[in-house]
Structure formats: C-alpha cells, structure tokens
From TrEMBL:
InterPro entries: AAA+_ATPase, ABC_transporter-like_ATP-bd, ABC_transporter_ATP-binding, P-loop_NTPase. Belongs to the ABC transporter superfamily. Keywords: ATP-binding, Nucleotide-binding, Transport. Gene3D superfamilies: P-loop containing nucleotide triphosphate hydrolases. PROSITE patterns: ABC_TRANSPORTER_2. This is ABC transporter ATP-binding protein. Coiled coil: none annotated.
C-alpha cells in the first residue's frame, strides 16, 4: 500500500491571550494514511483535530514534528507538498459566493491551465455527478447548505489533489443530502483513488464511510485502528434470554454460582435472564442449565453497540480493558 500522508510527532501550542501560559493543543500526533483510504480523525471538543488538520493543509506551522505529503516534506517544500491537498473546512471557504455554481467550477477547472473544451467537459461531468445541473446558474450565496457543501467537495475534486481534507462534511445537512454526500465521498475514494480525511462528530457518518479512525484526545492519539476491528473489540456479549417457564430453585442456584452477575427475573408465565458474558462460548454453559430441566428458551436478544458508544468508551480510556477482555 502506498503511503500518501505521514505525520510524525506533531506538536503545537498556542499562547494564551495576555498571558505567558501556553495551551498544548497537540502534544504528540503520528499517523499514516494510504492512497485511496477514507480515514476519520475523531476526538471530543478541544482534542486537537482542527489544529492537526490545519497543520496538514499548511494553515498552521507545527512547533515540531514532520508532515510528509506524497513523499514531500511540507515544511521544506511547502507549495509543492500542498499541491497534493485540498481542504473543505467549515464555512466552505473554497467557494466564491457571488459567482454561480458553473462559474465556480469553471474558474477552478481553468486555474489548472486546461483548455476551454476540457474545462467544459470536466464541469459538465461534475455537475452531473454531484446532481447540481439544475442549480448551475444559481449564485452560491443562494444555494442551500447541502448544495454548497456538494459544490465545495466538487471544487476540491477539481484541484486534482491526492488528498481531500473535510471538516464536518455533513454538519447541518438533511438526512437525504447527508446520504448523498456519503455516497459521493465513497465514490471519490473508490472510483478516483483519492484519499479522504474526515473530521466529524457524527459517528454514524464515520461508521458508515470510514475504513479506519484515528482518535485524538488531549492532543495525543489514543487509537488508530480499522472501524471493523473496533466494532469487534467492543462487541457486546450482553444477552437477554426469555424462558417459557420459571427456573427451578436448583437451576437458580446454579445460575448464581456460575454467572454471579446474571440477573434473573421471574414472571408467572415467563422468566428472563440478563447476562453479560466475558467470553461468547460461555453461552453454552448457560444453556446447559436450562437443558437440565428442559426449560424452553423462547428468545435470545443480543444488545448491539454502535460506533458512537465505542467512541465514548475509547475517550473514557476503556480501550485497554477491551483489549484484555478480547484476548
Ligand atoms: N487560535 C487559538 N488560540 C488559542 N487556543 C486555541 C486556538 N485554537 C485552538 N485552541 C485551543 O487548542 C485546543 C485544541 O483545539 P482544536 O480546535 O484543535 O480542537 P478540536 O479537536 O478541533 O475541537 P472541536 O471539536 O471543538 O472543534 C483547545 O483547547 C482550543 O481551545
């Protein structure tokens, strides 16, 4: 796999206003991103995400550490390195508000020295891909937030850069447009082999489109792993088992002995056992208790965990516990 971005030991502090004290926004951040990957850069408020993104796209100079983009050090050859990056940050700063959708696209396509014919071809292709044809003659400041966001991403595509950095790409978008933007981002990575780095608080979007997440907390990386690995690592082994009868005293004692944390609730007709298993295989021991007196099992419900809950656990420092439990 080809590494397109390598960030090593980044550090950045801000001086507090009217004070000699410093805020250590980024204390030690290192990670790599491969070509064609979609990576989520996550963290709670104030974790250091924006500072990291701004250093990568050259808007801030790190106090120390290195950033290499497509093999080029962005401090030594800044302009050359930055040619490989486009950023869509909050406020859609890469658009001209008083120009129309088509004029914006033509301006950015023309910027790269393409012929008039080629500019028209590219603009038409993007208008179609981003479903903006009907709005082609509309001024940007008249567009909805979702349309502006789509146009900002289309403009970032035009720069032909290898990496697109996006800060909260789906913030404030309605559900339909959010799904449309997600599809576009997936297609940009898969069909055009571009690399995408997304910073977002929307864990649903992250779980949906990112292959990997880098989680920052307090200026440091706390996790760098594939989304599927994190989902597996934090997989919940909590079950609610509904039984067609009550358990006998003997079964209840056994349940208490073998699964002291299990909660047994009896009803006149049914009963339920709620249990959080350390190892999924333990479910067989549990079923042996029911089998002893042929207690009918009516349903087994497994609690699920979503990426948002996993993110909260990681930020609270439960990553190591999860690793120990799963090993
Ligand atoms: N220009 C600045 N001057 C002083 N402190 C700053 C500046 N920019 C950011 N900070 C501080 O640096 C720390 C990291 O901020 P940063 O914006 O990078 O976090 P973030 O992870 O992007 O947060 P959020 O999710 O809230 O956008 C915070 O404590 C923030 O208050």
């Amino acid at each position: 796999m080809e590494t397109i971005i390598e960030v090593q030991n980044l550090k950045k502090s801000y001086r507090k206003r009217k004070s000699k004290e410093y805020i250590h926004a980024v204390t030690d951040v290192s990670f790599k991103v491969n070509r064609g990957e979609i990576v989520g850069l996550l963290g709670p408020n104030g974790a250091g995400k924006t500072t990291t993104i701004k250093m990568i796209c050259g808007l801030l100079i790190p106090d120390s550490g290195t950033i290499t983009i497509n093999g080029i050090n962005n401090q030594e050859k800044r302009l050359k390195a930055l040619r490989h990056i486009s950023a869509v940050l909050e406020g859609n700063r890469n658009l001209y508000w008083r120009l129309t959708v088509r004029e914006n696209l033509e301006y950015f396509a023309g910027n790269r020295g393409a012929s008039k014919k080629e500019v028209t071809r590219q603009v038409d292709e993007l208008l179609e891909k981003f479903r903006l044809q009907e709005k082609a003659s509309e001024l940007v400041n008249r567009l909805s937030r979702g349309m502006q966001q789509k146009l900002a991403i289309a403009v970032a595509m035009l720069a032909d850069s290898d990496v697109i950095l996006l800060d909260e790409p789906t913030l404030g978008l309605d559900v339909e447009t959010s799904y449309e933007v997600r599809d576009l981002l997936r297609s940009i990575a898969t069909d055009y082999n571009r690399t995408i780095i997304i910073s977002s608080h929307d864990m649903d979007v992250i779980q949906d489109i990112c292959e990997r997440t880098v989680i920052i907390n307090g200026g440091k990386i706390v996790t760098d792993d594939r989304v599927e690995n994190l989902l597996r690592l934090f997989e919940v082994r909590a079950y609610t088992i509904t039984l067609g009868e009550q358990l006998s005293d003997k079964q209840q004692k056994l349940l208490n002995l073998m699964f002291p944390e299990a909660e047994y609730k009896a009803d006149t007709i049914q009963s339920t056992v709620e249990v959080d298993l350390e190892k999924s295989e333990a479910i067989y021991d549990l079923f042996d208790i029911f089998k002893q007196e042929e207690t009918p099992v009516e349903s087994i419900d497994r609690k699920s965990i979503n990426f948002e809950q996993i993110f909260m656990k990681i930020v609270k420092g439960e990553m190591d516990d999860a690793r120990v439990q799963s090993s």
